[in-house]
């Protein structure tokens, strides 16, 4: 039976409220968006002595940073050798080296700052559902092992033992990875940034940006004008018309998630007994993990429209029972969704359409590690203007042709790929 929609994720939110503050006068850096990217950049910039103001249209954690599955995965969608083919040897190797350490950036920050963020670092499994997918895992394993990464292949028996699922022919274990409470992490990043002197305004949207006498003037929906030497637009999947062409350069998708009631001990021994989060190799993938209180949390792509009833999450319940038939009858207590941004080439994009106005967009399922690790780089760029501190090159914003029809096209692709996944072996 379908339960009511609770309207919020399962993640525990820290009890303390993050203090808001407005910095007097002009600032060195205005950050628009209080997600991982914006808050990490604000924290590191404030630590360097820059005068920083963060502004967020909603609350901390109400966007993708608080609504995701909490998987902290290093690397990118592309393997290192592919990055070199796309970007050239030097730039490709630079991005591969940077992406290799993105999970380190998250877990090192939690440890060094003593953040009260629930986390676990036992690795991440990429599960192969076909022999072709397993061949791709072999290639990925080879490339990362050559670079000294702590990774290994899993055969059919090993992946069954670690996941408790019997739907895979093998997989790949990346021990550099792990998982966190994503909502707690973004709230603690906000707390770190404000503790270092950054200002934070919530529930206030920037509606217009204008260049004015070597400064940027940001107008808000509350009639306020903020002046800054430089502006970081850290809105990613929630980008709108503020930056011409930015929203049209991204393909955004809805990521739907469910969480069960806490599982009894006998089921915990059979559902993800190894403790690692998992993403599978299907075209329309599902990803899942256990929460700190013993729930199974599962996510995947959903309808392009906003959900209308609990039935819009049924595809995840079907996937859960396909993988774990023993969970038949287990109550689903939480259902939620958020928006994620993809780029056509599956790479993060870094833009500076005008001097002093810059942004990064496109996470491809690696947002927690990628955007947190970018913080020091973006802060250094704001301080120095030296592009050499950035891990990948600045590129022009390139709107996707016929972007207005993206919902129809993406929905058709999702339906087609879901059908292929259903029959593929």
Automatic annotation (TrEMBL):
Keyword Aminoacyl-tRNA synthetase attached: no
Residues annotated as domain FAD dependent oxidoreductase: 28-380
InterPro entries: FAD-dep_OxRdtase (IPR006076), FAD/NAD-bd_sf (IPR036188)
Superkingdom as given in the UniProt entry: Bacteria
Keywords: Oxidoreductase
UniProt protein name: FAD-dependent oxidoreductase
Organism annotation: Rhizobium wuzhouense
